[in-house]
UniProtKB/TrEMBL annotation:
Protein's UniProt name: Trehalose synthase
Domain Glycosyl transferase family, first and last residues per copy: 216-386
Family: Belongs to the glycosyltransferase group 1 family. Glycosyltransferase 4 subfamily.
Presence of the UniProt keyword Transferase in the record: yes
InterPro entries, sorted: Glyco_trans_1, Trehalose_Metab_GTase, TreT_GT1
Length: 425
């Protein structure tokens, strides 16, 4: 496995945004846990929501005195094709993990299991790729937690029955939403912890309006005309093709509108480039439709600028574990038109800070309404930022994790109830 270097972050720096009371609670929660050694393990150091979560969380855990490392498992192309299929199946796709695929999955996990796990008191394993590790490490000293970031509300039964035995080896699990907890997964501890964003990161910190305009112009967009944007992986569950169709409906009534689709290609997502090419073909030749990826020099600062330049953010997901790009858009004061799926409804409060939609036609209708009603658009954007400030900043995420660590270390192997740590209101 390969270690990811993460700079240490000071929780005090977040006080102006999260509040002094939050910082004091975090200090108090961390005090009894100082010196506890934690490892996080996932499948990539670049691209996707898990990476966005781990950088600030690991940095802040180190900052409050809990030594925390981040490791990335190594795998083959064949392995990542299997795990992408597993990811799709766990979100309900009609796929099969056959015998050879199961063997490929196990072989890579066996290779990654040869590691000094006893150096850590708590090991947190993220998503399906390294999920087998807990079952492969004998006589482990620490406590192990599986962190599921995907929409597990309606899994493919065959894929779920294949991976579930691996999960029973864990001391607990974390899910983003309560409906993702499967009734036949019996673990000592289950926590509900929605993801969060780092408001001080390059992707989310304030930018000078002049810089925002310069970046938008550099990539060919006109800052004087309406801009609609979706920022996400190029993935069928994110429905970029549906976003293009909705844009075309809006453009019939508002010829001046522009659409931007932008995403990064994660190293653990072999389908990304295939669906990127499919999106390009679906878009065709349209000078007002921009499709960008990291190969175009898109980094966090550019994404930040695009989200701030957009009049409306779309996240038309068909399945969505949580949707951090929704959080990012709301934080920047932009209303979001989001698919009524997964974690989007606890972020997008329909009619208050954006709209929830079920179809291309609804997406087009709500987007057009927002573009044509600038006062309501501004009001909704302000409500969205406040909703994120109260519920979805990394300080809340850190607080929830510290509570979980305390419960995990204090309880015997069989702890009592499944308890959610957070409920949005």
């Amino acid at each position: 496995m390969k270690q990811v270097t993460v700079p240490t972050l000071r929780v005090e720096a977040y006080a102006p945004l999260a509040g002094e009371a939050v910082v004091e609670r975090i200090r108090a929660l961390a005090r009894p846990l100082v010196g506890l050694r934690v490892a996080h393990v996932n499948a990539t150091a670049y691209g996707g929501g898990v990476v966005e979560l781990l950088f600030p969380l690991v940095g802040l855990l180190n900052g409050v005195g809990i030594p925390t490392d981040w490791w990335v498992m190594e795998g083959t192309d064949a392995f990542f094709r299997v795990t992408k299929t597993a990811h799709n199946g766990l979100q309900g796709a009609d796929v099969v993990i056959d015998g050879p695929m199961q063997e490929t999955y196990r072989e890579v996990n066996v290779a990654n299991s040869r590691f000094d796990w006893d150096a850590y008191d708590v090991v947190v394993i993220h998503d399906p790729q390294p999920a087998a590790l807990a079952s492969l490490v004998e006589h482990r000293r620490g406590r192990w937690i599986w962190r599921c970031h995907i929409d597990l509300s309606r899994p493919n039964p065959g894929v779920w029955s294949w991976i579930r035995p691996y999960l029973t080896a864990y001391d607990g699990a974390i899910f983003s939403l309560a409906p993702y907890v499967q009734p036949d997964l019996s673990l000592p501890l289950v926590a509900i912890i929605p993801p969060s964003i780092d408001p001080l990161s390059e992707k989310n910190r304030d930018l000078d309006p002049a810089e925002v305009e310069a970046i938008v112009r550099r990539f060919g967009m006109d800052p004087r005309r309406p801009l609609v944007a979706q920022v996400s992986r190029f993935d069928p569950w994110k429905d970029p093709l549906g976003v293009v169709d909705a844009y075309r409906l809006v453009k019939r009534e508002m010829p001046e509108v522009q659409l931007l689709l932008v995403g990064s290609m994660a190293t653990d997502d072999p389908e990304g480039w295939t669906f990127y090419d499919r999106t390009l073909r679906h878009a065709g030749e349209d000078p007002d439709l921009f499709i960008l990826a990291n190969l175009h020099g898109i980094n966090h600062r550019e994404v930040n600028a695009f989200q701030r330049a957009a009049d409306v953010i779309i996240q038309k997901s068909l399945r969505e574990g949580f949707g951090l790009t929704v959080t990012e858009g709301l934080w920047k004061g932009r209303p979001v038109v989001g698919g009524n799926a997964g974690g989007i409804p606890i972020q997008v409060l329909d009619g208050q800070n954006g709209f929830l939609v079920e179809s291309v036609e609804q997406c087009a209708d709500r987007t057009q309404w927002l573009l044509q009603n600038p006062a309501e658009r501004a009001r909704m954007g302000g409500e969205g930022r406040e909703h994120v400030r109260r519920h979805f900043l990394v300080t809340r995420d850190l607080e929830d994790h510290l509570q979980l660590l305390a419960r995990l270390m204090a309880a015997p192997a069989a702890v009592e109830a499944r308890t959610g740590l957070f409920v949005a209101n």
